[in-house]
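Render this sequence as a predicted structure.
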Amino acid sequence: MATTKVSIPLTPQRLRFVQEYLKEPNGAHAARLAGYAHGSAKVTAARLLTDANVKQAIADGMGKAARATGLSVQWVLDMLQENAKRSMQAIPVLDKLGHPTGEYRWEPQAANTALQLLGKHLRLFPDGKEVSGPHGGPIETETKAVVIHVSPATAREALAALQLGGVLGDVVELRENGNGAMPSDEDEGDSS
């Protein structure tokens, strides 16, 4: 069974956002220029950039721009590679008459820049820190629980202090037995 993509036309404001984003890929700036509230432009842009129709319109626009200019990822990579090779060649220095002086020059900054851009494309130099467990797998974590028997009032005070200090996570359980006191070891172990 084949699935059909249904594209919903963009509102004029969303279309303007896409147009501005294609000019300069800064979501908050594009949202402001499209008429969205300045104070929430960042949040609005994040929401719009996850919308399937907006993402498709941006991809279509980028594809049209690439076709119109004749640019492609492969062309850029080829040019970077050629620039790196040329920049690393030793070029003879010529005198006023065009004769070699015996000295050579090369352009290490251009070569390094081209190589750096190629390396980034190949993800050889990650921009952020990547954290993983052994062999690239997930990091194993362990959750521990501590049970302390105290009066309900003391427990509530301690709990509030720990939450304010940021020591506790999201899930904390405070149990009382039927008479308003915390259960004792005998209460929990007594099944009769």
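Summary. Residues 181-192 have pLDDT under 50 and may be disordered. Residues 12-69 form a domain with the Arc Repressor Mutant, subunit A fold (CATH 1.10.10).
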